[in-house]
Amino acid sequence: MAKPNEKLAGALRVLKKLQDKHNGVIESNDLKEAHRSILVEEGFLRPVMKGWYVCSNPSDRQGDSTSWYASFWSFLSGYMDKRFGKRYCLNTEASALLHTHCTVVPRQIAVITKEGGTSTLKLPHDSSVLIYTDGKNVPGNRVEVNGLQVIQLPEVLCRLGTQFFKNNPREAEIALNLIRDPGELLTILLAGEGMPSAAGRLAGALRFMGRGADADRIIDTMKRAKHNVRESNPFEISSPTLGNSRERSPYAMRIQSMWAGWRDDVLSVFPPAPGLPKLPETYLSDVDERYVADAYNSLSIEGYQVNDELIERVAKGNWNPDGETKDKNNRDALAARGYYQAFQSVKASLAEILSGKNPGEVARNAHHQWYGELFAPSVTAGIVEPHQLAGYRNGPVYIRNSKHAPLPRDALADSMEVLFNLIAQEPEPAVRAVLGHHLFVFIHPYFDGNGRIGRFLMNAMLASGGYPWTIVRMKSRDQYMHALEAASVGGDIKPFANFIALEMSSS
Question: Of 323, 246, 294, which is closest to residue 469 (Cα–Cα)?
């Protein structure tokens, strides 16, 4: 008779094959009852709805949403494919979100099918899918994004109503900037009896974004085809956040748009910058004095169990992984040693910034070094693979219980280049600090350490304005995470800017 561990191992081998085949989306019929039962019991599978499961991490606590948000799009893709094949597409609004690679898991997605009636799938964590039949509105020319059937982008833009531009201005700007030639829109606008209302709306939107020539081309072409077009701007924002961006990556455009759309909000709540200190040595000495408190709080926020004694041992050089087995095997000690080494590297960057060098360029050149120092002790101890020091991650990561999905690996290089360009060009230190930190963790470029590097980046940018080194305290962790989520998911940066300003005053 097989032992419990042998039964689990057998079930995991079956799950591995299914996971690779179906992107972690499992239907009851895919598994034997014995395998399904043990995988659910041990936390490797979590139910989504009757007969459907997603792969999960056994270490997730009951009620955690991480595995669900990480699996949302693959679940939807797998479910729709199994049930409808290619005989469906996401509706206009959902197609727009997919084309612009919106990083937030929506509460509800609407799907149009050619047959099957209307139903609402109630899914975990208050999410749902509305499925309805409307064969006439399932376009013949569809494209696939994230494994899902969606309407082609030019047709999406011609179908979008004014309300989408009001409710989702960032996605609307990104979508329009993905259209380089207005001829792509005119092909749709001139079809059949024409779409004069859509033409006027798109011309007004393009003119608002600084693309007057493209707006004129739409109006002139529609008039030549004998369509009466009234131009109107569907946006309600006061000014565009992108304009005619030259970026081709929707992810990089999103970073640009967030920065432009948020900088005034940061300045409205953050105190004015004192200016570069006249005595850099005094400033750096004060930073040194804050090391113990900073290390304790920053590491504790990330879940490491550290104490003042350990930090003092590391700081004084009394930590000996070669001679002390306890230290060598202590993950928390390795994290503390790495934090100390990274802290020293950041201090060297501060000295450059305080000498008058461009803070964005200093951080661009140094952030990989900060990351390398942070994890070098773990590599030496064999806990982290050496290739992880090479640079940005080459796979997906997820933020616990967040509806925001960090950017995919193929978007990292472009997005990080844009981020450091924005930091380098930004004249206000407060904006560099608050948005630099938030957008760094929004992108999440590394497999691990993003929060710590993000806080180092924040403090380097605070130093560029003479603000004090600021400690995000462990007791404020929940408020900190909620403020980050409010910006990433809710689009509101003010709670985070307020939070950093309050923590700065308490440091």
Answer: 294
Residue 54's DSSP bridge partners are 25, 46
In which order are the strands placed within the sheet that holds 88-90?
A: 88-90, 108-113, 127-133, 119-123
Task: Express each pLDDT in 412-428 by its tens digit.
Answer: 999 999 999 999 999 99
CB-based contact 151:139 (threshold 8 Å): yes
Give the residue ranges of DSSP H helices in 106-237: 153-159, 162-167, 169-177, 183-189, 196-208, 212-224
Rounded Cα gap, residues 252 and 256, in angstroms: 6
The whole-number pLDDT of residue 76 equals 93
Are 90 and 98 in contact by the 8 Å Cβ rule? The answer is yes
Q: Phi then psi for 54, rounded to 5 degrees?
A: -125, 155
Beta bridge partners of 144: 149
Give me the DSSP letters along 77-96. HHHHHHHHTTSEEE-HHHHH
Distances (CA, A) of 271 to 275, 427, 460: 12, 15, 17
Q: Comparing C-alpha atoms, which of 332, 311, 347, 295 is closest to residue 452?
A: 295
Distance, C-alpha 40 to centroid of its chain: 29
123 DSSP β-pair partners = 127
More confident residue, 383 or 94: 94
Alpha helical stretches, state H, 355-493:
359-380, 412-425, 429-443, 450-463, 477-488
User: Is the C-alpha dihedral spanning 247, 250, 251, 257 positive or negative?
Assistant: positive
Three-class DSSP category at 306: coil
How much is the pLDDT for 306?
Answer: 56
Say how far apart CA 171 and CA 502 lie, in whole Å: 32
Q: Name the helix (H) or strand (E) containing 339.
A: helix 331-354
**Nearest Cα residue to 71 out of 110, 105, 121:** 105
Q: Which pLDDT value is given to residue 328?
A: 44
Q: What is the largest CA-CA distance in the chain?
A: 86
Alpha carbons within 13 A on the beta-carbon side of 326: 3
CA quadruple 333, 473, 65, 147: dihedral positive or negative? negative
Spatial CA neighbour of 442 closest among 488, 397, 389:
488
Q: From CA 320, how far away is CA 327, in angstroms rounded?
A: 6
pLDDT of 327 strictly over 60: no
Q: Please indicate whether residue 387 or residue 423 has the higher confidence score (pLDDT).
A: 423
Query: pTM of the prediction?
Result: 0.89
Contacts of 28 (CB under 8 A, 6+ apart): 36, 51, 52, 53
What value does the mean pLDDT of the chain take?
Answer: 90
Ranges 26-35, 116-125, 328-337, 402-411: which has the least confidence:
328-337
